[in-house]
User: What shape does this take?
Amino acid sequence: MKFFDLVKQRYSVRRYANKAVSKEDILKCVEAARLAPSAQNSQPTEFIILQDPNKIKEFSKKVFSGVYLPSSFAKKASAIAVLMAKPDFLTNVVGKQLQDISYFLLDVGIAGEHFVLQAQELGIGTCWIGWFNTKAVKNFFDLPKQYKILSLIAMGYPVESKSKSHKRKSIDDIIYKWI
Assistant: This one.
């Protein structure tokens, strides 16, 4: 599949078929993320993969409750990837002070996009999730303080294919200036 076609086909899937995603395919997605570039090659992105259906249910009850209920669709996913980072000193502390940019956020974003595009190529639907209880995630896995939980990616085979595309801004609307 050509890259541009892959990008055009990818969308956020919130309804999943009752069909497991193989460990091998999940590992292909993680491998695509592992190959992503990062500031100073710091490679801050780390994953936790939930694939056991009982663990996904238990996790979902804690992480998607209360105000986070809109993200509870993920409890029906075949797998959930937790994207996290342990920011290093040089590129993230010094970079934040000098440039006011948290480079690890960019790095994890690039890795996550590699992950979801690889999934799309494999026919696996994904949805980035940013609305969840990060404290509950840390507690669920008993993670050390230095880890930053940044997003979740629900994975599974779509119940139906997307029939219409979302409206996007025109190219002229997103190019601020071309000199």
User: Anything to note?
Assistant: Residues 17-159 form a domain with the NADH Oxidase fold (CATH 3.40.109.10). The first strand starts at residue 45 and ends at 50.
